[in-house]
Amino acid sequence: MHQDILLNMENPLQLEKLYRNNKPAFRVAFNALYPQLKGDPLAEGWYQRLNYSQDDLLWGTRNERLFVVIASLVAVLLAKLPDIFSLDKEFFYTRNAGFIVFPLLIAYFGWKNDLQQKTGLWLAGLILFAIGFINFLPQGRPDDTLNLSCIHLPILLWFFLGFTFGGGKLTGEPNWLGFLRYNGELVVMTALLLLSGMLMTGITIGLFKLIGLNIEQFYFNYIVISGLAAVPIVGTFLTQTNPQLVGRVSPVIAKIFSPLVLVMLVIYLIAIVYSGKDPYNDREFLLIFNALLLGVLAIIFFSVAETKAAKSQIERWVLFLLCAVTIVVNGIALSAILFRISTWGLTPNRAAVLGANVLILLHLLLVTAQFFKVLTRKADLSEVGKTIARYLPIYCLWAFVVTFLFPLLFGFK
After folding, report:
1. Which of its termini does the chain have fewer beta carbons within 10 Å around, N or C?
2. What is the model's pTM?
3. Residue 56 above 70 pLDDT?
4. Is 66 exposed, middle or buried (0-12, 13-18, 19+ CB in 10 A)?
5. Do residues 154 and 223 both lie within one domain?
6. Residue 55 lies inside a defined structural domain of this protein
7. Which residues of 291-305 are buried (b: 16+ CB within 10 A; e: fewer)?
């Protein structure tokens, strides 16, 4: 986006097209370039246009509001299917939780980005195939491949959402970094909505208790579940129509938590040595260790995605060290998995975790190398973002393998 803006500074019509194609990304990129463009009348006009602040929230167009209302109602209906048709709730939610929200968000961005009909049909076909596949997988003992498919299928749907977010383009530079930024903003907005919902729930139940009515079961079965289904859709709508809502909060969160996580991670690694715990013989500890790895990786990605302009050298060092320490964590987890495979053999779970850890390690090495170039002033910080973004389809490919091929390769065990 930065390069496109610079190349079209003499072409107002093309700038307008770039802006309308992706308003949040254009605003971020232009503000980052503005110090270079000061004094240019066109740049001054764009700067005032993009940074005009207003007190009122924007509620989108009538069609957008209608779309969000209908999508929210559909999400609520899908979430209540087990009650409507007396389905087994464990069977339904473990296999279909991702289909309650992701297809609706995909439809939202497909509509917003005017996705080509052919591309939309392909996506719809893939989603329908995934629904049929996951629901017809046999239930056996053990259920390792089934559980792995249920875990990795939402990752695949998440990739479809990112593909649609970027306009459904297979060529050019897909907006994966913008998609990661959207994810961070959605997490913040969702947390705010859920906190508000929890407060309302407590007040409502408390008020009804005062008059002798216990509505807990009804409230949780209908209001809470409906709210949980609709929150991602409403949160997406708010972040897209009002990017200023969390646009200033997310970078602050990234700036605060990156050094805190770095310190926590170093202390945790030291504590492991003194505690006597190790992931080599303790399966549960290994699972927690890998969950920690994924959480730190998400924070790194979020911090880089929220880096909208040149940051201080201290912030760059923090992210570089965080990547380096995470490589150590990944190395420990990877060696533990290899030890367990060599000792007790290969299972679907071990194969899935091994593949994921290898991919994460390679990604971290590439990102850390780019950060080193940034610190030595051999590369721009934007290159780190590109390195993160370009690797994401590889995770999608692995999720596809685990979801659809592992049950076949391991005989549905």
Report:
1. C
2. 0.82
3. no
4. exposed
5. yes
6. no
7. ebbeebbebbbbbbb
